[in-house]
Amino acid sequence: MSRAGSRPRLAWASAVLTACVVATAVAVAQPAPVAWPKQITLVVPFPPGASNDTFARALAQKLGPRLGATIVVDNKPGAGGSIGAGMVANAPPNGATLMLTSSTFATNAAVQRKLPYDPVKSFTPVALVAKGPLVIAVGAATPYRTLSDLLDAARADKSKLSYGSAGFGSINHMGIEIMNSLAQVEMTHVPYKGISLAITDVIGGHIQFTLATLPSVASQVTAGHVRALAVSSKERSSLVPDLAPVSDTLPGYDVEIWWGVLAPPGMPGAMAEALNAEIRTVVDEPDMRARFAQEGAEPVITMTAAQVAEHVRLDIEKWRTIARQRNILAD
Is 14 domain-assigned? Predict the structure, then answer.
């Protein structure tokens, strides 16, 4: 490979993995003081070790002292996150029980026929902690150099291209189904039990591509095993500024992972906004920004609790629309 060809790849991986992030000071209005419980349970509806768990533990460590509370992270995995979410939906709205979840919460609401809660009415959205893009990654042995190449191949032969996801209804799955809809193509979905298995099969040539988080493919891009074609966010990401967005090829495409804190239904608005302000302050600290960057994400520091509620509602609506259009429903 030429030196010219290797430089963007190395720069891309460096941008993803470097934790040296410059903090941006943002003024956050401080609501009236709230008397917080002395112990708060932060439910993570996924197993330990993933980004949800990583962010929850970092947030708990920083946020607890600011609230004068001990925050205990409680992993409650199962049923795509609905077990832990159901526990929070039935908890009292006094601030003693919170949940850190991700955009999987919204995609589940779209594809699951039955949930033990109403994804909109059963929660009080409090804050978005972070968000991050995904990337379209193809095997290095494929002929596709641009997203247009990939889509042209899909148009030429409907049975030619298959893509892998982390499972049915995952954001990897749903994100490509939006692409199918916008591009008017049919690329075949192959669900895996985790995105790392899908990436392995992309490298092995068993499937042609995947939509994956930045950290999950960074080392493979650096090694030359996969090629990153585009980033899923509406605009270029500061984490990988050299990578063009999908929307340059498919106007209107915009898919990002988000991580957020939700509370039980009925939490008073003043309490939700006070907690929102504390979280926004914490996630803007340099070491938190560095932690997010390592996971391919950036903090969200400009949204009030009311704005977060609208964001979550619209995200659920978006995924429900694509699920209906593409007939994507769990058995």
Answer: no
